[in-house]
Write a structure and sequence with these properties.
The complex is a heterodimer of chains A (435) and B (306).
Chain A lengths: L2 H7 L4 E7 L4 H6 L6 E3 L8 E5 L7 H10 L5 E5 L13 E2 L5 H14 L42 E2 L9 E7 L10 E8 L2 E10 L5 H6 L4 H4 L7 H22 L3 H13 L5 H12 L3 H5 L18 H5 L11 H5 L12 H22 L10 E3 L2 E3 L5 H6 L2 H5 L4 H10 L4 H15 L1
Parallel strand pairs in A: 1-2, 1-3, 3-4, 4-5
Antiparallel strand pairs in A: 6-7, 7-8, 8-9, 10-11
Helix pairs in contact in A: 7-8, 7-13, 7-16, 9-13
Chain B lengths: L2 H30 L6 H17 L10 H20 L15 H21 L4 H32 L4 H6 L6 H4 L3 H12 L23 H26 L10 H22 L5 H27 L1
Helix pairs in contact in B: 1-2, 1-3, 1-9, 1-10, 2-9, 3-4, 3-9, 4-5, 5-8, 5-11, 8-9, 9-10
The chains are: A alpha/beta (435), B mainly alpha (306).
């Protein structure tokens, strides 16, 4: 390639495929606000792989596969975490958040200009099982009958759901699918585009407890072991919901509005409830509730009583909220928002309302502190040491997804607002209390 | 128009149109995202991105259909070129003016399904294949309303020639004469070019869908092919509904460009300001609403000519 083309290429926005390891979910999401970077959805579109935070041993092969899927020239940056076991030689290691963007830009420029060599594959380029098919596309041969040819299970006939009996094909989604939390692995059986059966194969990043205990704590995790101001909790709740909206808008095909939601999450202060309501009205005008979210899909009501799943429970008409039992919140006249639609759209509407109400409440709270100890209503529901709402929500996934088309299933999954970091941190608090 | 001149004209329109789409889409994305971006940055960004694609290697998958993978963007670009060749810029300035220009354009649109399906099928990978089948359902649903919306424009002209269709709009543009036509055309045009709310085959929920396995030049060429089809749809909309070259003061070709840019702006804005429609809802709306509306449009247009 001519030097001129390389020089022009070095000026392009840096395409990065991020893997958000433990405790780095928000930090990686914030990179979407950086003008010089483009966070891409597939490693094929990236030049750099960013591994942020710790990744447990059980997902290191997946990191290697992701790495090898990047086209040449490619390079890796390790941000936080130690990168142990990832077998990526010479990858720059960054500790401070302020250094990440300059490091990515610098590495990209050197890579494209040719002063840094591309990274070789980690895994051998070989078939998982010896290829015994005869034809170029696997047809024929004795290995094709009745087994797992080429390491892939064969399609099977599934039940007749709608008068059209289709092959049921097993597929695995995760652990680094762009629209889902890192660490979540789903084993799906799909017939056409409909999910016949879903199992959760992994719902954690699998990092050691010491790493979890050393991670930064959100106000909600800190509230488990000490008093935290209501204003701080409620602003954090509003920001968390807006961060969720940023990801959810992207999943529904509006990444630009997602960036606006993310910016709003950074900017909102106590008393800014109307800003959130205005943004919510804007998003409603995108057709979101009319033609994008599956109306009536993702219902969970029979399983929800007592689950304490925050917005998911309250969208289904259950007034489950630990703040109701908190005298400090009672003194502020707190009343939870409750809807009774129990579907994906209702969870969306409720989070917008809750984010706005949280900012109004934060403005009224003054210096008051939350009154409960050892438990808190996190943005996802009842959080206690060792018991996070996302863990309880994950148990509902198989029933939630069955019978849904993929885009509806993804909208339903996103509507649960799974946070695997919060689960790990709740466990670490439990361990600290036990010690 | 001589063959070399026609080929040159279509190539120029394709390159310029693709560049305009690349710049315009980045600009609207920045506006929708609340980001300030300098004009110079916007203007050079497509050049830098193209250069990066040229320096990036292609990748492969397990046992892909290599020829199909390589052909898909070429086929889509060719279909866009064919469609664009039918668009008259001014009296006497059109790359090709067969008496059956409408049929040629419609045939090109029908074949888009082959290109998109080929692009999703060839990598032998789950997400692209899912996107390919989605476009199959999408295409089967939009073909009829698309053809009917276009067909109504040939009634006042009493011809299938696109030059005649534009000439027949001298007294009154089709957008006024057939008020249902342009909205119908734009909705199904979004579906044809799988853009914005109807970007189901390459959607964000499929991590890029049919292009999820594309890297380097393959990704660039597919993106350019998609943009080309968008330009072709917008240009044909300008010719068939907005009077083509008709307009005061300015020369005819300038009017065609202005009208095409206006439609492109609408389509690109829709891409950032509307949520992705569910495939089930689109199929339902196409068959239950768009086809009856398109038929009504044809009947009413025909009745006025009796």
């Amino acid at each position: 390639m001519t030097p001129l083309v390389r020089r022009l290429a070095a000026r392009a926005p840096v395409p990065v495929y991020p893997i958000a390891g433990f405790g780095m979910r928000d930090a990686v999401q914030d990179l979407r606000l950086e003008e010089g970077l483009v966070l891409v959805d597939t490693p094929r579109a990236a030049a750099l792989l960013l591994v942020a935070g710790a990744i447990g041993p059980k997902h290191r092969d997946a990191v290697a596969r992701t790495h090898d899927a990047l086209p040449h020239p490619r390079a890796t940056v390790l941000w936080g975490g130690d990168g142990d076991g990832l077998a990526i030689a010479d990858a720059p290691r960054i500790d401070r958040a302020a250094d990440v963007v300059p490091a990515l830009c610098d590495l990209f420029a050197r890579l494209v200009l040719g002063s840094r060599p591309t990274e070789e594959p980690i895994l051998a380029d070989e078939d998982p099982i010896e290829w015994r098919g005869v034809g170029p596309y696997g047809q024929g041969g004795t290995g094709m009958t009745g087994g797992t040819p080429y390491g892939r299970p064969m399609a099977d006939l599934g039940p007749d759901r709608d008068g059209l009996r289709l092959d049921v094909v097993p597929v695995e989604i995760g652990p680094f699918f762009a629209r889902l939390p890192a660490g979540l692995v789903l084993d799906l059986s799909v017939a056409g585009d409909v999910i016949v059966e879903a199992k959760v194969a992994s719902a954690s990043l699998g990092v050691e407890r010491e790493i979890q205990m050393g991670a930064a704590r959100s106000p909600f995790i800190r509230a488990l072991s000490g008093p935290v101001a209501i204003a701080e909790l409620e602003v954090a709740r509003a920001r968390d919901h807006l961060r969720w909206m940023a990801g959810a808008l992207h999943a529904q095909g509006m990444p630009s509005l997602g960036v606006r939601a993310l910016r709003l999450a950074h900017e909102v202060q106590p008393g800014d409830g109307d800003q959130v309501r205005n943004f919510g009205r804007w998003t409603a005008r995108t057709g979101l509730f009319h033609w994008s979210l599956p109306s009536g899909a993702g219902r969970l009501a029979p399983d929800l009583p007592g689950m304490g799943l925050g917005p998911v429970s309250r969208a289904a008409g259950l007034p489950e909220d630990l703040r109701l039992a908190d005298p400090s919140y009672q003194a502020l006249g707190f009343a939870p928002r409750v809807l009774d639609a129990d579907d994906v759209g209702a969870r969306w509407r409720l989070r917008v309302e809750e984010a706005a109400a949280a900012l109004d409440l934060a403005a009224r709270a003054g210096d008051a502190f939350a009154g409960l100890t050892g438990m808190v209503e996190s943005p996802r529901g009842r959080l206690t040491p060792g018991d996070a709402p996302s863990d309880r929500a994950i148990a509902l996934i198989p029933r939630l997804l069955e019978g849904l088309e993929w885009s509806d299933a993804l909208a339903a999954l996103v509507s649960l607002d799974l946070d695997l970091d919060e689960s790990g941190l709740a466990v670490s608090v439990d361990a600290a209390v036990a010690v | 128009m001589s063959a070399p001149a026609a080929i040159g004209l279509v190539a120029l329109l394709l390159v310029a149109g693709t560049y305009v789409v690349a710049v315009g889409d980045r600009w609207i994305a920045a506006l929708a995202g609340g980001r300030r971006v300098r004009a110079r940055t916007l203007l050079v960004a497509p050049v830098y991105s193209a250069a990066l694609a040229m320096t990036t290697s292609r990748t492969t998958t397990e046992r892909p259909d290599g020829p199909g993978w390589a052909l898909a963007p070429a086929l889509l670009t060719s279909l866009a070129a064919l469609a664009l060749a039918m668009v008259p810029l001014a009296p006497g300035i059109v790359a090709a003016d067969p008496e059956t220009g409408f049929v040629v354009f419609s045939a090109a649109i029908a074949f888009v399904m082959i290109a998109v399906f080929l692009h999703g099928w060839s990598p032998n990978s789950m997400l692209p294949l899912h996107g390919a089948y989605r476009y199959g359902a999408q295409a089967l649903s939009f073909q009829i309303p698309f053809l009917l919306a276009m067909l109504a424009t040939s009634l006042p002209a009493e011809s299938l020639s696109l030059v005649r269709i534009v000439e027949a709009q001298a007294p009154l543009w089709n957008v006024v004469r057939q008020p249902l036509g342009l909205p119908l055309y734009l909705v199904v045009g979004l579906a044809v070019s799988f853009w914005g709310p109807l970007n189901l085959p390459d959607g964000d929920d499929l991590a890029g869908g049919t292009s999820a396995e594309d890297a380097g030049m393959a990704r660039l060429l597919w993106g350019m092919a998609r943009s080309s089809m968008l330009v072709a749809v917008a240009a044909m909309g300008a010719a068939a509904f907005l009077g083509g070259w008709h307009g005061p003061i300015l020369p005819g070709p300038v009017w065609v460009i202005v009208k095409t840019l206006a439609l492109l702006g609408l389509i690109l804005a829709a891409g950032h300001l509307f949520a992705r429609i569910r495939i089930e809802r689109f199929v339902l709306v196409s068959w239950a609403l768009l086809i009856p509306l398109a038929l009504l449009n044809v009947f009413v247009s025909g009745a006025f000519l009796l």
